[in-house]
Write a structure and sequence with these properties.
The chain is an alpha+beta fold and 181 residues long. Helix content is 33%, strand content 31%. It binds coenzyme A (COA). Residues 26, 29-30, 94-96, 101-107, 129, 133, 135-136, 138-139, 142 line the site of coenzyme A.
Length: 181
Amino acid sequence: MKTGSIGIRRARLVDAAAIAEVHDDAWRYAYRGVLPGAELERMIARRGPAWWERAIQRRVSILVLEVGDEVRGYVTFGASRARSLPYKGEVYELYIQPEYSGLGFGRRLFDAARTALANEGRRSFVVWALSDNEAACNFYNRLGGRAVATAEETIGTANLPKIAFGFAARHARQGGSRSAS
Ligand SMILES: CC(C)(COP(=O)(O)OP(=O)(O)OC[C@H]1O[C@@H](n2cnc3c(N)ncnc32)[C@H](O)[C@@H]1OP(=O)(O)O)[C@@H](O)C(=O)NCCC(=O)NCCS
């Protein structure tokens, strides 16, 4: 594994293939044995470079982690999709290439997304993880997330339980409103 200079920046069109590669590796690593195999491969096939190019063109918020000029992780975020929860923002996906996990990069990407969300006025946010993805649940717990909701994700023929981890605004004023911002 090579390291070197480490940086986090907005994704550019030329990053599409590299993001797709991180996505593929991380999904196989995280979801093999959790998702039905054929469904996992179908989902990976749908998320090729062309899918990521379109996402970047549509200005989806994507930050990439660069380690020595190579993209080794990414995070996507924006408005919360669960309107029933009192959180304005959402981290949709955060993935680190498996051989680069456990080195603090996930936390760095998460913090960068948190700052970007706050700059958009979304100081509280939610992240969903499949309950069976123990690594992700431990990670979001460790980062201070609180389990605030459960739901089911239907993937192909499988109904999989998932958990929402809520992250409150960092500098909430004492005695202020309880509503999330
Ligand atoms: C889960 C994932 C994002 C974590 O990123 P990472 O770079 O490995 O995590 P970090 O090294 O930044 O760890 C941050 C903290 O979480 C903890 N943590 C990370 N993975 C953990 C695990 N599997 N079990 C327990 N704690 C874990 C670390 O101990 C660390 O705590 P500390 O800083 O207080 O010591 C990454 O491993 C990954 O992409 N995995 C595969 C795909 C996936 O499951 N993504 C999430 C989908 S919602």
